Structure formats: structure tokens, C-alpha cells
Amino acid sequence: MRKTVELDDFDRRLIELVRQNNLEPARTLAEKVGLSISAVLRRLRRLRENKVIVADIAVVDPALTGAALTMHVLVQMKVPGRQPMDAFARRIARRPEVTAAWEVTGEDDFVLKVEVGSMAEYDAFIREELDEDDGVLGFKTFIAIRPIIADGPSRRPLLA
Fold first, then answer.
1. CA–CA gap between residue 37 and residue 43 (Å, rounded)
2. Residues 47-70: tens digit of each pLDDT
3. What is the set of domains in the chain, with CATH numbers?
């Protein structure tokens, strides 16, 4: 088990600020949290070294990249177990359409977030990955109509 990293109020505020914009200059972060620039840089380096901050990423608008449809797919395996579950997880992790995935508890075994440009692309995905997999018992698809909270850790509400 990984050990917990002790965070103070400055660390928590820095984490929240870089969740909202990881390109914010250290000078601006320092002003916002009330620390020196060197203290902010030192804290950010420690947070990254301790894997509190695991990645600096860009949140992309899928509609602008040709992935106008977002599906959430619940997948149930025929025989849950480490080997078939791990094999399925490795395979779907290689698919560019799968932008997030979770192994979950309950009736279903996985939740996939699938982003595609059309229903034809989604149909091809399910035929190749779900219909052809003998280990998959079944799946349910939920089509996202509109976002309510921004994707990513900042969880910005999108509705006024």
C-alpha cells in the first residue's frame, strides 16, 4: 500500500490551482497562495516527486477533435477473475476511442468512456472489442447528451 503524503493548506491550494490551469506561472501561483516563487516551485517539485501530481495534462474538447459522441459503456464479464479481467483491460487500454476506463464493483465489471465521431465508429468499436470477445457476457451503453460538470479534477459546473 502506498503511503499518504502529508499536505498542508498551501499544498492543497496549489493542487487546486494547478488542477484548474497547470500552465499558470509560478509567480502567479505564489501571489495566489501567499508564498515565494521558490517555495511554490519547491512544493510543486515535491508534489510531483511524491506522485501527488501524477501528470500535467490537457483537457481536450472531444467535439473539436472529431469525437462528437461520448458513450459510457458498462461491461459485464462471463467469468470474472484476474486473468480475463486483466486481459480485457490491457486490450481496451490500447483503443484510442477509450479515453477512460474503470474496473468497478457490482453487477458490471468495467465502465468505459468511449469517444467517437459517429455511431458507425461506435458500432465498429463494439463489434471489434465487445461482440468478438468470448469473455464478455454483455454490455450496456449510455450516450452522453451534454456535460453538466467539466471533465477533469477541477469539476467546474458548466450550467449557470
1. 10
2. 999 999 988 877 777 778 777 899
3. 9-49 (1.10.10), 62-143 (3.30.70.920)
Q: What is the pLDDT of residue 13?
A: 94
CA distance 47 to 15: 9
Over its C-alpha atoms, the chain yields an Rg (Å, rounded) of 20
Element (H, E) at 40: helix 37-49
| Whether the predicted model's global pTM rises above the 0.90 cut | no
**How many Cα atoms within 13 Å fall on the side-chain side of residue 68?**
6
CB 14 within 8 A of CB 33: yes
Task: Quickly tell me which residue has 458498462 as its cell.
Answer: 74
- Residue pair 64/73 in contact (Cβ under 8 Å)? The answer is no
What is the C-alpha to C-alpha distance for residues 44 and 35, in angstroms, rounded to an integer? 12
Q: Which helix (H) or strand (E) holds 76?
A: strand 69-77
Q: Based on the number of CB atoms within 10 Å of its own CB, is 129 exposed (0-12), middle (13-18) or buried (19 or more)?
A: buried
What letter does residue 63 receive in the DSSP assignment?
A: G
Q: Please tell me what DSSP assigns to residue 5.
A: P
